[in-house]
User: Fold TonB-dependent receptor from Aquirufa beregesia.
Amino acid sequence: MKKFLFILFLFSTVQLFAQKVKISGIVTSSESNECIPGASIRVKGSSTGVSTNAKGEFELAVSNVKIPFTITISAVGYGVVEVPISSENQSISIVLAFKSILLIEVVSSATRVNQNILESPVSIEKMSNKAIKENPSFTFYDGLVNLKGLEAVTSSITYKQINTRGFNTTGNSRFLQLVDGVDNQTPGLNFAVGNQFGASDLDVESAEVIPGAASALYGPVAFNGLLSIKTKDAFKYQGLSFSIKSGLNHVGESFSDPKGLNDFAFRFAKSFNDKIAFKVNASYLAGTDWYANNYTDVNASIPGANRGPNNPARDALNIYGDEVTKNIAGVGVVNRTGYEEKDLMNYGVYSFKLNGALQYKISKNLEAIYQYNFGQGTASYTGSSRFDLNNFTLQTHRLELRGSNFFIRGYSVQENSNDSYNTRSLGQFINRTWVQDLNGQVVSPANADAMWFTRYEAAFKGTVNSVSANDNSAARAFADRGRLAPGTRAFDAAKDASIHNYGLSGAGVFSASKFYHADGQYDLSKDIKFVDLLVGGSVRQYSMFTNGSLFDDAKNPISILEWGSFVQASKKLFNEKLKLAASLRYDKNENFQGNSTPRFSGVYSVTPLHNFRASYQTGFRNPTPVDQFIKLNVGPITILGGAPNNSAGMNIYENSYTANSVNAFGNAVGTAIGVGTPPPVAIAANKDLLVKANVAYIKPEQQKAFELGYKGVVNGKLLIDLNYYQSWYTDFILNTVVIQPAAPVLGSDGKPNIGAAYQVAARSVNAYQLYTNASDEVSAQGFSLGLTYLLDKGYVLGGNLTNSNFNLGSANVNNIAQFNTPEYSTNLNFGNANIGGSNYGFNVNLHWQSQFDWYGTFNGNRPGTIPAYSLADVQINKKLPKQNVTIKLGASNLFNNHVSQSYGSPAIGGIYYISLVYDNPLK
Assistant:
């Protein structure tokens, strides 16, 4: 009995010292007073702990710990707080302060699973939620240019195109942009129109950029890289937010007064019983677009010394309708009078975005999500012409089932081009509505161009009374009589009629195309112990419809099916210091052979804060639907996509001559006939100059690349990111012209057929511009260095340098995509989110890049120089925590340097703004 009492006493004593302690509380941010979901609460020196819920609340039950003890509270982006616990039931309120910078971020795009950014096997850049809030540019998307290795080209206030590692274009179909996993490209254009149809600054949680080929995990569009934008989870980010931003652009311009630029955004999110949550977003940006008013004479047929405003054959870069030309006997080359872009383009641009999402937690680790996005707006786009994407609409529906180790996602993307149009065509069509004959009567549009030149010739040669002979200006003024003046009712009527006339008879651009996509992945790492294994796949169906204006789809619907699957395996070796990974993806488009894209990588961690990486990657790009199926007869030539079934039965790829050989043959026959040789003899003597075209059907572009890099943190103060890469490219997609006679191009002897030669000489042939590939190989290499240093008292200094070099080698310059990338670009940033605890903050970003030549279809693939330029973005802000308000005063391009980022695109000036952001989280 005594032993029993002693044991009972001992047990009670142990229970006394080991009784349970319950701690509850809430964790909030010192900067915004908002709750912090996912914050970690741990018993110091122990693994015991919990995380805060979506409302920032927690409950922690602790046993076997003697009072008093200490808990630590931490969250990504915030400093660590320690709190002493002195009672059994303690309720506490913890306020965490922002760290000045996130040296160790978590990213998911590099391997499709969450990992420390220092351990990424490939280069990756991240713009965090904190960086978005502190961004000095007008929008977060504008601020992406400050990320290392990223290039930006602005066609419009509402349209900025981004790219990495060369071969830049104004419409980049080699770069994938995802918003919550949804491909943000328009089905008809086949590239994302910047953030025109993306997310508002209020709803963006982060943006991750992978420079270089990412096809091994993301498929064909990620040929040059990937931008993955993630919006805020409705469970984690609850409450009401709105922002009002107002500014000015066109400051200090001789051709325009300052114009207002306004951006309004709203967000509300709420959860119910931690099971159902929803969010609603709306934003509207409106202003006056940048002016494209470079009137340089770019007529390549005229010697440079003779070009300029007094050149009768003037073809000004941003004047349209003056491309129509004629060589008049006894006069010379003359071009029609065109219209300036400002009279044709809709410069009153806007971007309206509406977004809603519903999230349902089926269980603790299983969630269903439905999301709808609607975007409509106006933007200017520089392609083969300057296009006005006017009231263009894009809608997406996304349905996703997500677990702790898998997701299945399906979505649709639908567009409507509405009132979009081609300004170059518009200028030409307006010019055909008012031309008078020599008696003053307006002629039909079909005869307008010829009659204009007839009037010009008559006036120049002195056959028109009261018009001085041999005077180009006087002759032009006579030919232009009756010309519709911009701003008049007649001009506006002609403009509107052409905009809503689609196909070759008008300037309108019509597309109601769409695509459907499904993808998913499963992480088998918990089931397979010896290796981390990830598998996934996707399928996509394009459904194109232009009603015959671009494709032969008025009665023959065009659809394209493609699918892909991947597997990724990784393993840590040598006490987890070395991580090796291999991935393999296979993609198949119904019109092409399948493509395998492997990737191999290794990361060696000397310590957790010092990591060396190496990778070998491959990439490919499928031809776009336009590359495959365009079928557009533009009069003297038919533009024909390169998919085999697009020209089925036409026998063009199999039976045609090269355009160069036809020109050589025509010149030789013409010369022979000119010296008295009978035409049949001249044709027979020169027919062997004709060369059968050997044009292959189109296929995907290919890339191979390797990369070396280091990423690490020194003394907890300095973040270093260094990388070098080299890439090789083949099978660039290009156009080539062929000439097709009706007769076989070769005879039974394998030589050019005399019957076909007669047809060529008589010009009884058809000309085609075919899409195909070049076998030439080119390479590019470069390096980048990024440094970020934490100074005392919360100041942060950072910068990066990127070098890009292109090696043409022995390739034909006409057979490859143009590099369109500066050799050097740099960024420098300096800021402090909270100066001395005063709730004042600031940020300064400086950008500079070297001069380079830009090649694009807008100027007939002839080079135009982009001079070296610099930009400075600055903001200062004041936070009012009690009112949940931040006031920001800022400038994009502070010094108002007017720069064009691609030849023919508008000159971008400064934007000066003030904004107010209200962010009140639900408790």
Notes: Residues 627-698+736-773 form one domain.
